[in-house]
Amino acid sequence: MNHVRNSRRNVIRQTSALHEQLEDLDDYLDLLEARARNKGKRTYRMGEVRKELELA
Fold this sequence. Notes:
By secondary structure, the protein is mostly helical. Helix content is 77%, strand content 0%.
């Protein structure tokens, strides 16, 4: 019975890790899609954005 409990915990741990990896990959895909949409458009440095928004 203890073996089953340990196996179940391992499966839950692995599933959780895979879920986190999937979320990271989904975020990375969003980033790549945004870069593709904005290809050729002007980019801004963080300092420029802060100055424009009066955050600096």
